[in-house]
Amino acid sequence: DTGVSQDPRHKITKRGQNVTFRCDPISEHNRLYWYRQTLGQGPEFLTYFQNEAQLEKSRLLSDRFSAERPKGSFSTLEIQRTEQGDSAMYLCASDNSGGNQPQHFGDGTRLSIL
Amino acid sequence: KNEVEQSPQNLTAQEGEFITINCSYSVGISALHWLQQHPGGGIVSLFMLSSGKKKHGRLIATINIQEKHSSLHITASHPRDSAVYICAVYYRAGTASKLTFGTGTRLQVTL
Q1: Which of A32, A62, B19, B73 is found 20 to 30 A from B55 (Cα to Cα)?
Q2: Residue B48 and residue A41: Cβ atoms within 8 Å?
Q3: Which residue has the higher pLDDT, B31 or B14?
Q4: Where are the alpha helices (DSSP H) in A2-105?
Q5: In this predicted structure, which of A104-108, B22-26, B68-72, B93-97 has the lowest mean pLDDT?
Q6: Which residue of B lies nearest to A37 if distances are taken between CA atoms?
Q7: Do A55 and B40 touch (CB under 8 A)?
Q8: Chain B within 8 Å of A22 (Cβ-Cβ)?
Q9: Interchain contact A70–B (C-beta under 8 A)
Q10: CA B22, B27, A104, B55 torsion: positive or negative?
Q11: 10-residue block means of pLDDT along chain A (114 residues)?
């Protein structure tokens, strides 16, 4: 069990650029979650996959955001035309459906928009 | 509205003190998480509980479902316990057990 890994750890980009983050969940986990955390706040739910299907999206996920999990393993989160307000920590977590086990979190990707 | 409130927001303690962090939520839940977040962002799950009490080392978590309240206790606190402690609850909504998070309690333990 290598845990949930996220890449990159930090991303600095200019406003208006596109960015893509990757999350590799624990291999046995079929559910994958994306959360966003701004400074001084708790994480907020963005979206969730079970296998390759995106089953739920938050209202926070504007049309500039898209997430995929094409083969039911790793996932990507893309933000197009980044804005200052997108600066945050993007966290990924995974777990298994049907069990009563906690979600396992990655270390997050910190996005800074200049 | 599904809300999770934590208190206190900030807590400073001296090494060895007994610490309590409180969490209240507004509607029925299926389970509650206590999480620890260190500077740099990584989140570690400490406890997941739906009733009663759990203990791991110096950490104890309790939950009272009727009162919609949970507490996290740290006995014999140590500077390495300094971190943000986050309460998160599972509300059964839609197709997933989504986590709704509190804003966290920032704990600083000094020598």
Answers
A1: A32
A2: no
A3: B14
A4: none
A5: B93-97
A6: B41
A7: no
A8: no
A9: no
A10: positive
A11: 90 97 95 93 92 89 94 95 96 83 91 96
